[in-house]
Design brief:
Elements: H1 2-14, E1 23-34, E2 54-64, E3 69-80, H2 85-95, E4 99-104, E5 107-118, E6 120-123, E7 126-140, E8 143-148, E9 154-159, E10 163-174, E11 177-179, E12 183-185, E13 188-205, E14 208-214, E15 217-230
Amino acid sequence: MKKYIFIFIFSIVTTVVGQESKYYFGISYGKSFPIGDFAADDINNSKSGFAEGGNKLDFFAGSTLSLKLNFTITFRYQHFAPDIDQLATELETSDEATYSVETSDAWKIYSLLTGIEYKINLGRKFSIYPRIGMGPMLVTNPGVSITDTDEDSNTRMHRHSETGLGLGYELGIGLKRDLGKNFCLMPTFTFSGGFVTISDVDTTIDHVGTTSDYIPKIITFNLGLSLAYKF
């Protein structure tokens, strides 16, 4: 966690604003941290995502709309492995049983977000860019299975992997540091999430099976370093 704090402080301290260009495009790689129900591992909470910290990859571009406003577009891919080992350990303690844990695939989130960012000068060489974006989001949930190995492999919990389409969003700030005439660092620190319905997901909890729509509460905090080309 310390290295991510260092990245954040480094980006703020070293950010300077140079001559503005009309267009830019770039790539960003960093970390995504699940928040709230998305990170929860409560077996009795139907919204629990069992997601652990993951990675994100952005391809982004922007253009100047006015002296203070930029139009932005971002394609984002996020990947979160399911974390159910701790849940299985807690169940073993409470139930005095032995469980095997299996997962298939992972949380995979694809977002195409368009929005705007607003330039705020905080000094002669320092500016921040509050930003907001919205657009379609495609989500695949991981398959999760916890089985009681002491009782002829009875299923304690099982959820199938499916894919759903929804509406994604992001809200945060961007920074900028020029690297010569055409290149610059443009890190962003954003909260992102979405409203997604994954249809017809088969779920079994304590031997009771249901097929229903799964509506996860996806909220993440994202940070990373970006390299952009401006022209």
